[in-house]
Amino acid sequence: MAFARVGRTAQAAAMSWRHVKAGALAILSSAGHALQKAVVPNSCAFCGTRLRLGAAPVCAACDSDLPWIDRACSRCALPLPTRSHRELDCADCQRAPPPFVAAVAPLSYGFPVDAAIRALKFHRRLYYARALGHVLLQSMPRLAPDIDALLPVPLHWRRQALRGFNQALELCRPIRRQAGIATLHQVVRCRATPYQSGLAAQHRRRNLEAAFRVRGSIRARHVLIVDDVITTGATCRELATILLDAGVESVSVLAVARALRD
Fold it and tell me: Is the same domain home to 175 and 82?
């Protein structure tokens, strides 16, 4: 019995320490975001053109030059070689529908979007988060109107501590601010997995097995998973599955860019 009490005490202390770390990271991220916004003038994130106060963070010229996807699969956002205006599912989604009801990724993962996402994630260029988050906000009308919670794809706490922020959470800020949709914090990445980039599709799926966990209850009915890039969709599939198992009725996905499958 004494050993059991010690074990429970140690587990509670570890959970409390994780909460302290998560809270400290959130405060540092918010402070860094506010400082960067205060000292950097309002300019286009891609070309640096000065913009009027309150203008969108991407100038009209750069916006038109971004690699927008014309037609895509409505279930996984894979670009489709068709000019049809009807909603179509790709062959893979027809054979094996994903656990989420819809996915939107407005941009192709090519220049300058790929460079911007890498600069955001690995070089702390947070001004790209505001620009790419604006792109996501523009794409919200393409999704169902009953979405009542956002789930930025969680990072393991060690990777978030090393990076200093979660880029998916930063991308959610414009949506949360403008649409007033709450962010879920009950889903955590409980296993430190290797980076997904460079892995084949089957290895991506294996890499994510038991990587996420729901802590507590989720009251949202339709959750929107938010990420930077969809490649094979393995991360979104894993998250959608555990959300549905936790009682969520529907899951959709919103990402900045869609890469071609490996």
Answer: yes
